[in-house]
């Protein structure tokens, strides 16, 4: 009986002796496997994170304004008190442009002054250059400059029908019916005149292509310079005494007085007002 019980105990202990070490070994093996799997997961997570960082596009760097670069070109058309014209501008930096252009206009009209019939023609022809400075940005600008060529002025032909009276310098004459008084007149200003202007707009804008430009200012063109040349014969009130209008000292003195009178009437135009509005395109 004792042997039988002993064998039973031995049979029960054998499986336990086999099972317990096996569990311990399994636990030991599981630890490294878990660590290895965790390392693999961590490494794969790090790789995925790194890959995500690599695949994430960098934030775009701020664009540099094209207006900051020099050399941009703008062309425009305009209407102004100087006439119809065109202009071109080039940017030097973000706040300074150089601008130049030309203007042209012509108008004809007949009129009678002191008994002398004039057929006059107004001519506006000029070429100009300016520096546009933008102290507050690209819209408001100050624009000192020059009328490099000031062809603004007028020409006229004069005629006094024979037998008609006319006045020169306060003296009254009669045009000789046999040799009526004729003449030519001219009015001009300084050929080069400084200008001072301000305005809104930019012919070389920083972003858009289509643009506008508005200017106001003045041209310092000096006093008017009139010139009147007469030919023919001028007679007294009776018509009995006639003299050559081109050479007679008295008549020539009266012509000078008439020129002074015209110049005084036009004295406000020594400061010629400039108002300009135009459209343009930046390339």
Number of helices: 2
- Which residues form runs of ≥5 with pLDDT under 50? 1-62
| Total E-strand runs | 15
Shape: elongated
What would you call the structural class? Answer: alpha+beta
Q: Could you describe the largest sheet, including whether it forms a barrel?
A: 8 strands, antiparallel, barrel
What is the subunit arrangement here?
Answer: single chain
As for the number of domains, it is 1
CATH architecture: Beta Barrel
- What integer is the average pLDDT? 82
Spatial extent as radius of gyration: 48 Å
Main β-sheet, spatial strand arrangement: 1-2-3-4-5-10-11-15
| Strand fraction | over 45%
Measured between the Cα atoms of the first and last residue, the distance is 117 Å
Question: What series of H and E elements makes up the topology?
Answer: HEEEEEEEEEEEEEEHE
Helix content: 25-40%
Indicate the CATH class.
Answer: Mainly Beta
CATH topology-level name: Porin
Walk me through the structure.
The protein is of the alpha+beta class and 283 residues long. It has a single domain (72-282), classed as Porin. 25% of the residues lie in helices and 47% in strands. The chain has helices spanning 2-55, 249-265, and strands spanning 73-80, 83-91, 96-113, 116-133, 140-150, 153-160, 165-168, 171-175, 181-188, 193-201, 210-220, 225-231, 233-235, 242-244, 271-282. The strands form 2 sheets. An 8-stranded antiparallel β-barrel has the order 1-2-3-4-5-10-11-15. The protein has a 4-stranded antiparallel β-sheet with strand order 7-8-13-14. Strand 2 and strand 3 form a beta hairpin. The longest helix has 54 residues, at 2-55.
């Amino acid at each position: 009986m004792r042997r039988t019980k002993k064998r039973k105990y031995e049979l029960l202990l054998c499986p336990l002796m086999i099972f317990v070490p096996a569990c311990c070994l399994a636990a030991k093996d599981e630890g490294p496997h878990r660590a290895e799997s965790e390392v693999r997961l961590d490494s794969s997570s790090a790789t995925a994170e790194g890959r995500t960082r690599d695949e994430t596009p960098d934030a775009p760097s701020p664009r540099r304004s094209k207006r900051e670069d020099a050399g941009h070109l703008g062309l425009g058309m305009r209407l102004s008190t100087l006439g119809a014209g065109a202009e071109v501008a080039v940017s030097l930096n973000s706040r300074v442009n150089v601008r130049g252009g030309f203007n042209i206009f012509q108008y004809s009209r007949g009129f009678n002054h002191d008994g002398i019939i004039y057929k006059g023609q107004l001519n506006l022809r000029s070429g100009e250059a300016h520096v546009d400075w933008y102290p507050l940005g690209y819209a408001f600008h100050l624009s000192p400059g020059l009328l490099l060529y000031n062809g603004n002025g007028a020409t006229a032909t004069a005629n006094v029908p024979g037998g008609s009276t006319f006045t020169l310098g306060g003296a009254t004459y009669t045009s000789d019916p046999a040799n009526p008084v004729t003449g030519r007149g001219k009015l001009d200003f300084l050929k080069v005149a400084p200008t001072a202007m301000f305005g809104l707009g930019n012919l070389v804008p920083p972003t858009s292509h289509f643009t506008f430009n508005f200017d106001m200012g003045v041209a310092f063109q000096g006093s008017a310079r009139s010139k009147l040349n007469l030919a023919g014969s001028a007679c007294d009130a009776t018509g009995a005494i006639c003299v050559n209008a081109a050479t007679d000292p008295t008549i020539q003195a009266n012509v000078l007085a008439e020129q002074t009178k015209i110049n005084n009437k036009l004295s406000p135009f020594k400061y010629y007002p400039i108002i300009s509005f135009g459209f343009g395109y930046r390339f």
